[in-house]
Design goal:
Blueprint (H helix, E strand, L loop, with lengths): L1 H10 L2 H7 L3 H7 L2 H19 L15 H23 L6 H18 L18
Length: 131
Amino acid sequence: MWGFFIFVILYIQKNFIIFIFMKPFEKYLTHSSHLRDLLDIYLRLRQHLQEMGFSESELDNPPTYTFKMMSLQEKFNNEFNDVVRFLQNYGFEVTKDEVSDFIMPQLLKINELIPLRDGDTEGRDSGDEDY
């Protein structure tokens, strides 16, 4: 019996297996435009920081603040709060921390794809690994 079970899992896509173990709000958010909007804002913010030449260490206390940087940060915070409120209004019992924990790996992946100036690339994807 276990041999058949293992055989079946080998043919199921990896994403589907992960999808089974997701919390209900995570399943919903994965297919929601709200998550895409939030990640898009973060991506634009990260690109702007890269264009401005910021380093990872300067993010705690940036030497300069641009209008675009502040605008994108405000949009990100507002969109994050909207996502949490939307999930709660939709009936999911979820906290900001739970939503943040779900979104954080995706934000870290964006950080890997758009590195900042100081070359803080330890643990980042160099692109030559087999997946």
